[in-house]
Amino acid sequence: MSTATGRKQIHLAAHFPGVNSTTVWADPRSGSQIDFSSFEHLARTAERGLFDFFFLAEGLRLREHAGRIHDLDVVGRPESITVLNALAAVTDRLGLAATVNATFNEPYELARRLSSLDHLSAGRAAWNVVTSSDAFTGENFRRGGYLDRADRYTRAAEFLGTVRELWDSWTPDGEPRPFAHSGPQFRIEGEFPVPRSPQGQPVVIQAGDSAEGREFAASAADVIFTRHSTLEAGREFYADVKGRLARYGRAPGDLKIMPGVTYVLGDTDADAQERAAEIRRQQVSPQNAILALEQVWGRDLSGYDPDGPLPDIDPDPDSTLVQGRVRVADPVAVARRWRALSEEKGLSIRQTVIESGSRQSFVGSPATVAAALEEFVAADAADGFILVPHLTPGGLDAFVDRVVPLLQERGVFRTEYAGTTLRSHLGLPEPVWKGGTP
């Protein structure tokens, strides 16, 4: 979406930080990951900044390391939709996006919960559809199993289609009609108890960079949450996914591409670079460095000195030392790259993990970061960004106070909400009712 001046508008969302090494829990400014006040603070800040939506991840099982609860991670995470229902009462315009797994839920129950959130928030609900092939997580559920990786999107596609059938079982003028669905994954029929939502249907977000994930997003999602945070990778991903839309009868504006990004602000660019380096050292503590090493090697390396050299043994590609985290695809290749980097620059274990890990996406003064964000969107590398602060819950404050006004001055970000629903914030059309006649 562009303004009358032709400048492409930037969409912004806020991710509540928590798991993984992005969040610096050791910082004295860090608060609780479970107290409602933390969620409220970040959500109110995002709404003050006129963001499109507030985004919550999901944690279905406590992650384990060597058979024990991982003590460098978040222990205790509330259920997403419950939190967002509460946030609906303390926000007015901000979209509320919940990550909910399509592998371990059922269409009727989830359709009802999301539609209820959409009504309670007056049309601000979104569902981030995720899948799982993780047997470790599956043990928490009645089926006690999991789907093969090849079947995850098959179930997810039918799951989403079934949910939309339920949402469409009420006509736009408020008439309920019976529903019936019969497919390989689900066979249900009855009457859906919740009327059509204020924005037609909740917004659907999909996170996935694989070929299957890209196709799923092109066929069914309203927003895709991606990891591509460099200009070159972003432009390739953007062109590829947008190029898939036409075969599903969709226009380029029907799907918003929003990578998850981090940022560090400073009074000057040099100041920001120094702060970014210090934050990386905080994110990769000595304990986290060994954990990162063990995730690649699949071995107990607790006896190694994080300030010493990398192990000279090879990784165990079949290891289950770490449970509940995404497995390293090719640990032998990763270990080879790390060794080459360590030898080239004379780096210790901790220094190697810091050097090889992801960098903050945008670093600089507020003016530098604002210009970089505009360049990224103008170059069709993204439609906007899901910002992931490194502090909970105050990490978004400086961005809203110092960067948002500059984006507004540039004419690439709203100065007020034009509508009341999340679809209106994103510039998405209301879904066409496909319920037909009974």
UniProtKB/TrEMBL annotation:
Protein known as: NtaA/DmoA family FMN-dependent monooxygenase
Keyword presence, Flavoprotein:
yes
Q: Which residues form the Luciferase-like domain?
A: 26-379
For this protein, the record's Gene3D superfamilies field holds: Luciferase-like domain (3.20.20.30)
In terms of PANTHER family, this protein maps to: ALKANESULFONATE MONOOXYGENASE-RELATED, C2H2 FINGER DOMAIN TRANSCRIPTION FACTOR (EUROFUNG)-RELATED
Keywords from the UniProt entry: Flavoprotein, FMN, Monooxygenase, Oxidoreductase
Pfam families, per the entry: Bac_luciferase
EC top class, as a word:
oxidoreductase
Under InterPro entries, the record lists:
Diverse_substr_monoxygenases, Luciferase-like_dom, Luciferase-like_sf, NTA_MOA
Q: Which family does it belong to?
A: Belongs to the NtaA/SnaA/DszA monooxygenase family.
- Please indicate which superkingdom the organism of origin belongs to: Bacteria
Q: Which species is this UniProt entry from?
A: Streptomyces tanashiensis
Entry's Gene Ontology molecular function annotations: monooxygenase activity
Q: What is its EC number?
A: 1.14.-.-
